[in-house]
Amino acid sequence: MTPADYAEISTLMQRYFEGLHQADSAMLRKVFHPQLAYACATEGDPLYLDLDSYMARIDAREPPAKRGDPRDEAVLEIAFGSDRLARVTARMSMMGRGYLDFLTLVPHEGEWRIVTKVFTYLPRKD
To answer: Of 5, 13, 52, 75, which has the maximum CB count within 10 A?
Structure first.
């Protein structure tokens, strides 16, 4: 893939992290595909949502930024399967938990968008 593809996905990921930190569903709708599939893979906490259901949860939460939560996030890997398929592995802390995200991206209207978000909780580092 081209350096431009990596740069575009890196920019998308910064919007993703910022949107989650601000609990800004308008910003997040610009990074997610309209047909988003959202799933929690943590044992004992099954959760499967579509985009509108997930955005309703975002809108209902107190923004981590307002709570004063520090930002702690990283893109661990960007991998391409083709010019129409990418995967991002990311980690972050938010609302008292650590998360590991596996994100699948596809082009939508000329831009990369997250079409699947599967995540699990990470053990706390106390």
So the answer is: 13
